[in-house]
Amino acid sequence: MKILLVASGWMEVKLLVDELEKMDEQSHLFKQYRWHDVAVDILITGIGTTFTTFHLTNVLKDNHYDKVINIGLARSLTRELKIGETVNVVSDEFADLGIEKQSEFLTLFESGFIDINEFPFENGFLKTSDSECCSKFPKVRGITSNKSVGRETTIAEIKSKFSAHIETAEGAAVFYVCRWMGVDCFQIRSISNYVEPRDSSKWNIPLALENLKNSVISVLQKISVPVN
Fold first, then answer.
1. DSSP conformation letters of 100-143
2. Using CA atoms, how far apart are residues 126 and 93, in angstroms rounded to an integer?
3. Are 96 and 145 spatial neighbours (Cβ–Cβ below 8 Å)?
């Protein structure tokens, strides 16, 4: 079994790598580990869809993986999710790709540039692969944006426009690349803070990172159990 973990920065995997056996280092962005009988490569892409798409495509061109798992922190759009909670993102979409009109924002689907079911989209969404490995976590819908919103007016527009639970800067890009490359992909995120005017005193990044590490280890444990 060979797994690729994709994260935007080393901060998001710094606790996890202490649990793994390091095997090789291809570059400062791409390192190879092992967890028991599972080969675990870690790719650090940088923040945002452009860097993620470029680096992930390059790695998948030259390597075969059984599963790709996008891991990291996320901001919650709903108070129903607790800070520190780990979620399984089952669908994602690009929230900042489209056309801004006088009084509204139109996605590429709404503006007619892309059909909602044009591959790899399903009804306008990019979806996770079916798997039991992430079934213990609450299923949520995500949006991906290169801009981390913080103004009250923008936050209200985002919440009104999209029926999503969490926001990240990479998730939809990972789903998009993996669907085109024919690789099973999943997204596990831990909530570090809420989508609200920026106030880092309300965040809990250490808790989110600790829970993320434990969640990823539980997924690796489940993957490593032979199926009879």
1. E-SS-EEETTTTTSS-TTSTT-BTTBEEPPP-STTTTSPEEEEE
2. 6
3. yes
DSSP state of 200: G
Q: Which two tokens stand for residue 69?
A: 């798992």
CATH for 211:
3.40.50.1580
**Cα–Cα separations (whole angstroms), residue 155 to 80, 124, 142, 149, 158:** 17, 21, 15, 6, 5
pLDDT in tens, 143-194: 999 998 888 988 999 999 999 999 999 999 999 999 999 999 999 999 999 9
Reference 213, options 72, 32, 40; nearest CA is 72
Total domains in the chain come to 1
Q: State the pLDDT confidence band at 227, using cuts at 50, 70 and 90.
A: very low
- Residue 220 banded pLDDT, cuts 50, 70, 90: very high
Say yes or no to pLDDT of 132 above 90. Answer: no
Domain that holds residue 18: 2-224
Give Cα 182 distance to the centre of its chain: 17
- 120 by Cβ neighbours in 10 Å (0-12 / 13-18 / 19+) ranks as middle
Tell whether the model's pLDDT for residue 228 goes beyond 50.
no
Instruction: Report the alpha-carbon distance of residue 98 to residue 157 in Å, rounded.
Output: 14
Give me the pLDDT at residue 225, please. 63
Tell me 18's DSSP state. G
Please state the φ and ψ torsions of residue 23, each to the nearest 5 degrees: -110, -45
CA distance 170 to 117: 21
